[in-house]
Amino acid sequence: MKVAKFGGSSLSSASQIIKVANIIRNDSNIRFVVVSAPGKRNDSDIKITDLLIALHTNHSIGISTTSIENQIIDRYQQIAVELDINVAIVKEFQAQLHDLLQTITNSDRLLDALKSCGEDFNAQLISQYFNKIGLEAEYKSPEAMGIFVTDEPGNAQLLKESYAKIATHKDSEKVLVIPGFFGVSKQRNIVTFSRGGSDITGAIIARGVEADIYENYTDQSHIYSAHPGIVKNPHAINEITYREMRELAYSGFGIFHDEALTPLYEVRIPIQIKNTNAPEIVGTKIVVDRGEVKKYPVIGVSGDEGFISVTIKRYLLNREVGYTRRLLQIFEDHDINVEHIPTGIDDISVVMRANQFEHNNKLEELLEDIEQQFEPEWIHVEKDLAIIAIVGEGMRDTIGIANKATAAFADSNISLRMINQGASEISMFFAIPSKDLKKALNNLYQNYFEK
Amino acid sequence: MKVAKFGGSSLSSASQIIKVANIIRNDSNIRFVVVSAPGKRNDSDIKITDLLIALHTNHSIGISTTSIENQIIDRYQQIAVELDINVAIVKEFQAQLHDLLQTITNSDRLLDALKSCGEDFNAQLISQYFNKIGLEAEYKSPEAMGIFVTDEPGNAQLLKESYAKIATHKDSEKVLVIPGFFGVSKQRNIVTFSRGGSDITGAIIARGVEADIYENYTDQSHIYSAHPGIVKNPHAINEITYREMRELAYSGFGIFHDEALTPLYEVRIPIQIKNTNAPEIVGTKIVVDRGEVKKYPVIGVSGDEGFISVTIKRYLLNREVGYTRRLLQIFEDHDINVEHIPTGIDDISVVMRANQFEHNNKLEELLEDIEQQFEPEWIHVEKDLAIIAIVGEGMRDTIGIANKATAAFADSNISLRMINQGASEISMFFAIPSKDLKKALNNLYQNYFEK
């Protein structure tokens, strides 16, 4: 039994929804369908969710909301007309929006409630369409499904007891259509998830009903071994582990949010990446353990810009007990998340994302504190660093993985600012100047996959 | 102007002392001579310092000390006779030993006082011999020189005001002969240095009198680019920086103790390694900045066994703010010094010296605490690790340094357990299985220096 989640681009128009219906019709194992709000139909289009946020903004500052409301309702109206279903339902959507705007006075609560409409209306429309074409389906709100969450607006966390409630829907004879992106709190407020949106709902449902697999439909069939925008024609990955994906995601791959992966990882339910526009392609499977680890020790290479390093040096630093912990405490006091901590004997580098220093004098204040507490001989900041990750579960048992990487850097005349490989050996990180990122990724890809 | 320090093997017998006298005679720039106690004359010999410690032990437990006392006195007597100087001085040494044993009741104080005699007697003998052969010299006790230290037995720390006092001897017309290894406290106790012995005294005097260079005479002419016991005929180093030496010393090179280097590093006085038995050889110079950094980016490779790593893994570990600091706190609570901390996304390894776990259940207790405080999915301990250091001030600006290393490991089929290179890039560390250490060092040496 499967849970299928469809992303915004898969549900952006009537023609896309027809594709989705065909997918469900052709696979009787799909018993639960989690839907997003209608996404962009083309590059200049606006997502329904963004329109709903704009509606909230205009309402808050007292500007007329009629025009935006009309845009939202027109979009659903057009889908309903093209799908040839009763447009009475769209009138109800309009009434519901009005109702929310008039009854909810707390601005944060209103924003959550409005945002949830994108998915909620879509689920109702789609359920109606399924029934019209003879696919027995039923719309289920998150409340009806039992998705109970914490009460902080925009930051819903699932309450564990939800799984038992969701499980009661396990043997539904109808296909259940569920809006993604939000749950309901014990105080009966609608609360949206902070990140990962509908992916989280899909994962929660899949876990709750103990699905064999969670199919995640977008407009991509695969995860690739390198970023297709940087490396020309990288090969598609058939199977990747959760941990490999997470290490790759760290530096550039952005298909899933962690929140969406955790519920499934814990109970070892695999995720199948599927393409709504080409459902015949098997796609990439995300699993807990993968086969062919020996044949493909490295699964992918990725890289991201926007890192910065701070290095301090002091003669005999290494002899002070606890200096690393004390240094990290300073970063923590300044609310800076640290990524890597390569150490020498009398020096230590701290590598982190540079966007944490965007505001005010955060970097200067941090450096001042380090200066005062450590009195280093030398403190050096290096900006514009990129981090490259080489990832694969089979790296540990394969000799020469590091050598292929360092050869790629040396051959392309790239200076290595940091190397970090730990004992778990599922990944290896290199810091290089940002300007060399493209060249480095291309050469690495060649060394691992083409030679 | 130079300060010269002579080690135990350089002063173990009359014939060695004659060599030392010739060195002083041939270099009128040497104005201060710091001496060790007589060392071993051959492999089965016993150092005077060890005899003095045994004297203390026997005295403490109430066993007759006559035999050991005689051995000590006989040794000085033999030197005096062979140097043809008045043996009356040796009688004074014997009286002084007796006096100490009878007057000092505190055992730790007595030990320090007895140990200091090794250097002190030798300095007196040598000074007398210098004068006999027409080399105008004067014995100066640490107290007379102004070497004032803290009062904890066996753990003397120099008091900074000493330098000004030492400086008053700067223009002495005679060559001053000073015993190494100890100073005097404000309470007028003799206190020995904890480590580094006479090297520290030499460094302190060199700094106090603002020497141009500190010559350190032992039975070696050079520091080598790899351990001669492991790599066959490694090349001698002409110039090495303080920091390079410290990074190399970390994993196997053991010529100097840090305490002995610090006073000189701070004021940029270079150290010249010299061989008493071959003073015509220039030897290795230790400097703050060296030339030829571009020509020889790597100065040496070294390695040491006896490391252990603890790796913990938990999905989403990376998202917890401050987890590294919290983990290091546990190690600190267990009094464990940590050497390297390679990090992945959801795993972190801690590498440290294994000898810290020799007693009781220290490792088990540490792991239990980690288990409780982190609830990792997976905790892995790897024993029998060796750490290899590749060191050189020029590494930062040279492409391909890492590649030569990883090539050496890959070619010798060695699995890399950890790689650590930070932004200061004066060193690069690799953890490998201990069994592969010899092979790795030999291949690395070849890759850096022979190809």
UniProtKB/TrEMBL annotation, chains A, B:
InterPro entries named among the record's database cross-references: AceGlu_kinase-like_sf, ACT-like_dom_sf, ACT_Aspartokinase, ACT_dom, Asp/Glu/Uridylate_kinase, Asp_kin_monofn, Asp_kinase, AsparK_Bifunc_asparK/hSer_DH
Pfam families cross-referenced by the UniProt entry: AA_kinase, ACT_9
Binding site for substrate: 49, 119
Keywords, sorted A to Z: Amino-acid biosynthesis, ATP-binding, Diaminopimelate biosynthesis, Kinase, Lysine biosynthesis, Nucleotide-binding, Transferase
BP GO annotations: diaminopimelate biosynthetic process; homoserine biosynthetic process; lysine biosynthetic process via diaminopimelate; threonine biosynthetic process
Entry keyword Transferase: yes
Record-level GO cellular component terms: cytosol
A GO MF term: ATP binding
Enzyme class at the top of the EC tree: transferase
PROSITE patterns (UniProt xref): ACT, ASPARTOKINASE
Descriptive protein name: Aspartokinase
Species this protein is from: Ruoffia halotolerans
